[in-house]
Every structure is written in structure tokens, then in C-alpha cells.
Amino acid sequence: MLISPRVESIPIGLQTFRIAAMRIDLVTLFPEMFSVVRDLGVTGRAHGNQLWSLHTHSPRDYTEDVHRTVDDRPYGGGPGMVMMAEPLTRALSVIRTQRATQDLAGQDQDTQEQDAQEQDAQEQATQEHVAQKQATTGQAPVVLLSPIGKPFDQAQAQRLAHSAGAIFICGRYEGIDQRFIDQHVDEQWSLGDFVLSGGEIAALAMIDAAVRLLPGALNHGQSSAQDSFQESLSGLLDSPHYTRPENLNGQAVPAVLLSGNHANIARWRREQSLAITLANRPDLLEQARARGLLTKADERYLLTLVAP
Ligand SMILES: C[S@@+](CC[C@H](N)C(=O)[O-])C[C@H]1O[C@@H](n2cnc3c(N)ncnc32)[C@H](O)[C@@H]1O
């Protein structure tokens, strides 16, 4: 089936350019699991607004036997089954064709758009965001979800959100025939130091983390900028949040948040961030310090926390 190109509009100066939106392909034995990110919440709305697209591919559709076999016993013995390389390879080949077809259609569209634009605006269009996207269009990495992969983090989510997407391979059983990995997989990403039954839940988490960073994904008034790990927080953890009622069974909202004094509120939030990060993730504090992101006031406050 030919996939119609998804495009997004990027305002640059007075011009608006339409370029390919983030496309996520998933090779998975459980495509139905992905309705969660496609249909619900922030990611569902962003999908409805065509900020990203989701394409699932079951390896069973690429088998050649009557039982639609996707796994077999491991050479060398041992428990469990191993996903066979061939159905995965066929699925990947179809995905690459679909992505290439989409890119060609997208390029045609880009060209028409550009014809209608001023020539000098074309130069502006080479600004970083567009360049990044176009450079990666059609060259999306093949990413295997795997506990032996690199830990996924906010920086990786940012990179994914600024790219043309990825082709995720969701493993099941004991894993995937190594020859498929050697031949086709560009990167391996892990959700954390634990073993899941399959790559789907890891992929769902990573897609969610990236999509909410897409321009326009969050409602007005929501912002990912104030979230944990973001640059605006120097990579530290977020501070606590409160809402009504002001007094919850004797638990009062911190007075400073009711003061209306924005400087004091900002300082309080920063100090909460510092304290929580020191308690839960001192490694993040060290990273911020090494990057020169802690102010003198931050350091003074931290001293009060560690003083005997
Ligand atoms: C039961 S696991 C296989 C675990 C593998 N035998 C090992 O010990 O590393 C099945 C699949 O779940 C996925 N998976 C499990 N844990 C994961 C994690 N922490 N991050 C990403 N994917 C994971 C991978 O795709 C993996 O192939």
C-alpha cells in the first residue's frame, strides 16, 4: 500500500515550509499495542494533527509457510525461541520502499512549494531545523529495542523528535537472530536495566517521549521546557507541583507559591530542583556542575543541604 506523505509546516521568517513529519515504522508481532500512542492523549492529538505518523508491520505478514512461523529453536540449545531473520528482513525491505516512495512524493511537493516561494527565502530554508530533517529523510535508523542497547534518555528523545523518525524492531522471545542485527540494525536502545517480554513497551515509551517534544504537540500552556532533564532546568529534576485546594486535610501549599512574587517562586523551584536532584540523582548534579550550569546561589544552597 502506498503511504501518502505526511508533511508539517515550519514557519521560517515570513515563509512557511512544508517538510516531511516524523515517521515511525514498527516491526512488531503486536501492532494493536500501538493504538495507545496513536489514539490517546498528547501523542494521539499530535497524530491526529499529522505531526507524526505511525506504521506497523507484523513479521507474520512476511512469512512464507502456512503456519506463518516467525520463530524457531536456538542453535546450541537452551530455553526459549529466537525470532527468525527472514520475515524481519522482508518487512524491512517493504518499509524502506515505502519510506523512499514517501520521500520522493515529499520532494515533489517541496519543489512545488519552493517554486512558489521567493528565491531568497530558499536560503533561509536551509536553517538548521529544516536541514536536519531533510538530511535524515529516508535515512531513518533501524533501531532494535534491546536490554543490551544504549540507555534511552531525554537527549535521545530530542534527537528523535528532530529527525525524520526511526524504524523500530520489537524483539520477542529470547531475542532476534544475530545475523539480522549484524546486517540491518544501526542502533540498539534500551529502556532501562530490566528485561521486558518484548520491545513494544520500550518503543511506546520512546515514541511518547519524542512526540511530546514535537513543535505544536503540547497544548498552549503546557510546555516540555520546564520538565526534568531539559536544558532550561540545567538537566536537573523537576520541582514539586501543587493545585487546589490550598489546604488538603491540613497539608498546606508552600506559602511562597501563593505569594505572587515571581522571583521568589523561581528561586524556590530552583532550590527544590537542586534538593531533589541531590537526593535522587546526584550524577545529574555533577553533570550540571561540570557544564558550568550551577550558579553561585545554587552552590550556596547546596552547601546548606550537605552541611552537618
Ligand atoms: C525477553 S526479552 C529478551 C532478553 C534477552 N534474552 C536478554 O537477556 O538480553 C525479548 C525482547 O524484549 C525487548 N526488551 C526487553 N527488555 C528491554 C529493555 N530493557 N529495553 C528495550 N527492549 C527490551 C527486546 O526487544 C528483546 O528482544
Task: Summarize this entry quickly.
The protein has helices spanning 35-39, 41-48, 85-115, 119-124, 128-136, 154-161, 178-184, 200-211, 262-280, 282-290, 296-306, and strands at 7-12, 15-20, 22-27, 52-57, 71-72, 82-83, 142-151, 165-169, 187-190, 247-248, 251-252. The protein is an alpha/beta fold.
Write the layout of secondary structure elements.
Blueprint: E1 7-12, E2 15-20, E3 22-27, H1 35-39, H2 41-48, E4 52-57, E5 71-72, E6 82-83, H3 85-115, H4 119-124, H5 128-136, E7 142-151, H6 154-161, E8 165-169, H7 178-184, E9 187-190, H8 200-211, E10 247-248, E11 251-252, H9 262-280, H10 282-290, H11 296-306
Parallel strand pairs: 3-4, 3-8, 7-8, 7-9
Antiparallel strand pairs: 1-2, 5-6, 10-11
Helix pairs in contact: 3-7, 6-8, 9-10, 9-11
Bound molecules: S-adenosylmethionine.
The site of S-adenosylmethionine has 20 residues, from strand 7.
Model description:
- By secondary structure, the protein is α/β, with parallel strands linked by helices.
- It is 41% helix and 17% strand.
- The chain is built from eleven helices and eleven strands.
- The protein has helices at 35-39, 41-48, 85-115, 119-124, 128-136, 154-161, 178-184, 200-211, 262-280, 282-290, 296-306; strands spanning 7-12, 15-20, 22-27, 52-57, 71-72, 82-83, 142-151, 165-169, 187-190, 247-248, 251-252.
- The chain has a five-stranded parallel β-sheet, sandwiched between helices. Strands 1-2 form a two-stranded antiparallel ribbon. Strands 5-6 form a two-stranded antiparallel ribbon.
- A hairpin with a 2-residue loop joins strand 1 and strand 2.
- Helix 6 (154-161) crosses helix 8 (200-211) and helix 9 crosses helix 10.
- The longest helix has 31 residues, at 85-115.
- It starts with 6 loop residues before the first strand and ends with a helix.
- Bound molecules: S-adenosylmethionine.
